[in-house]
Amino acid sequence: MRRREIPVDGFHFIDSTLREGEQFRGAHFSIADKLEIAALLDCFGVEYMELSTPIASPQSADAIKALADMPRRFKLLTHIRANLDDAKLAVDCGVDGADVYIGTSDYMREYSHGKSLDEVIEVGREVIDFLKRNGLETRFSTEDTFRSNFADVMTVYRAMDLAGVDRVGVADTVGVADPLQTYNMVSNLRDVVNCDIEFHGHNDSGCAVANAFSALQAGATHIDTTVLGVGERNGITAMGALIARLYTYDRALVEKYDLPLLAEIEALVAQKLKIDIPFNTPITGAVAFHHKAGVHTKAVLNNPTTYEAIDPADFGMSRIIDVAHRLVGRNAIRNRATGLGIDLEEEVLQLVTAQVKSLADEQEITTDDVDRILGATVLAVDD
Ligand code: HCA
Ligand code: CU
Question: Which of 8, 71, 216, 329 is deepest in the core (most CB within 10 A)?
Fold first, then answer.
C-alpha cells in the first residue's frame, strides 16, 4: 500500500476539549476556564477550537461569544446538528465556522433522527447553504461513519462536496475502526471529494491515535483532538499522543507548535477536570522518560537516542535515571556519584553497586538510600 506523505502545512488540529471534552465525566468548565484553556491552546498553535453547540445551554452560547471576542489566532467553530435552527444560533454567536453532523448508520437513522438518506442530503444542503451565505466555514460529518453503509456515506459526502462544503468529516463515533480501515475509508473518500477531510476518532478499543495518524497518511487534512484525549466515554485522539506520533514520524511536522507548552496545557486541563495525568501519557506522563534497567541506563548515558525516540528537552521535560533498585548498573551509579561531586574508583563503584543491589533485594529503596551508601563508602575508603 502506498502511503501519502503528510505535508508539513497540510494538516490542522481541531481542538475539541471544549466540545467533545465537555462530554467527559465531571467536566464543568466555567467561561473563565474556557477562556484560560483557549488562551493556552492558542499559544500552543492549534489551528481551530470547537465549542459545544450554543443550543446546549445559555452558558454554552455565552462561552462561544466570549471566545469569539478574545485575541486569538485559531478559528472558532461550534458543533451543531444538521438543522437550520442550530445553524442560525451558530451564526448569531460570531463563530468562524460550524461543524455540522448527522448520523448515517442504521442505528442513528432508526434510533436517533429517523431520516432517510435523501432527507439527510436535503437538510445537509440547506444548512451548508445557509452557513455559507453567512460567511461561515463549513464542515459536514456523518456520525458513526464506520458502521454506516459505505456507498451511502460516499453518496452523502459527494453531495455535500458538490454543495460547496469546506470539509467533510469521518467519525469513528464508537471507536470500532482500526488503522487499516481508517486508511481505506479516508483514501476512498479522497478520491470522491475535492474538499478537505476531517477525522474524529474515539478510543474505545485503543486505536484513536493510530487511526488519526492513518487518516493523515491517507490524505486527511484536519484531525479532531482533545487535551489528554478527554471526551464521551474514554474519549478521543489525545493531542499530546498525536504530537508524539507525528514527531517520531517526522519532527518537522510538529515544529509549528509551541511544544514546551504541552505539559502546561495538560496540567491545566487535568486540574480543571480533577484528574491525574495518566502515567502512560506520551511525553508528559510521569514515566515517559524514566530509565531503569542497567542495560538501558548505560546506553542512555552514552547516547539518549539509544532508548529515546523523543528528546525530552524539546518539550521542556527531563530524563530520569533511576538508581534505586536491584536492576541498577555501574554506569548509573557512577553518573549519580558524579552528580554529587564524587569521583569513584572502579573497585569502589563495584562495591557500591553490589551494596545497592543487595539492599534492594531486602527492601524497597529510594535514591536517598543510594546516596547514603555512596557517602558511607566514600568515607570508608577515605579512612
Ligand atoms: C457524538 C458526536 C461526535 C461527532 C463527531 C463529528 C461523534 O458526540 O456522538 O462531528 O465529527 O463522535 O460522532 O462526537
Ligand atoms: Cu465524538
Answer: 216
